[in-house]
Design brief:
The protein is mainly alpha-helical. It has 2 domains: 15-51; 53-114, no CATH class. The protein is 52% helix and 4% strand. The protein contains 3 helices and 2 strands; from the N terminus they run H-H-H-E-E. It has a two-stranded antiparallel sheet with strand order 1-2. A hairpin with a 7-residue loop joins strand 1 and strand 2 (93-94). It is elongated, with a radius of gyration of 21 Å. Mean pLDDT is 75; it is low at 99-114.
Length: 114
């Protein structure tokens, strides 16, 4: 099989968390290299967008959802470091305040989500 020479370089920076996530995804699908994995996914995304006008909006919403989940997770860790109980149902109480059983205080998706 003939492969055209690749002459253009694309470079971008990632946080440590983003890089680890990318490496895990690459390993999960058994890609030969991280570059191959990223190239294949970017090009596949470009081809999909060209074929489907609504695909770009779906991809943007997916990215925004992912960013929101990361932010919520980060905020949960910050709250826990501040001594705030982080659990379910969107309520939070500091460890000094205590929580009555009927309040069920919390933020996030449960103790195992952090």
């Amino acid at each position: 099989m003939f492969v055209k020479a690749r002459t253009h370089l694309v470079n971008f920076r990632l946080t440590e968390e983003e890089y680890e996530s990318l490496k895990q995804a690459c390993a999960a699908v058994g890609a030969r290299t991280l570059s191959d994995y990223v190239r294949d996914n970017v090009l596949q995304s470009c081809n999909h967008q060209a074929a489907s006008p609504g695909a770009e909006k779906v991809m943007i919403l997916g990215h925004q959802t992912w960013e929101l989940e990361r932010t919520i997770h980060r905020l949960g860790r910050i709250l826990e470091e501040m001594g705030v109980s982080v659990e379910r149902h969107g309520h939070a109480r500091s460890s000094e305040e205590g929580v009555s059983p009927e309040e069920g205080a919390s933020v996030g998706t449960g103790p195992s989500s952090h």
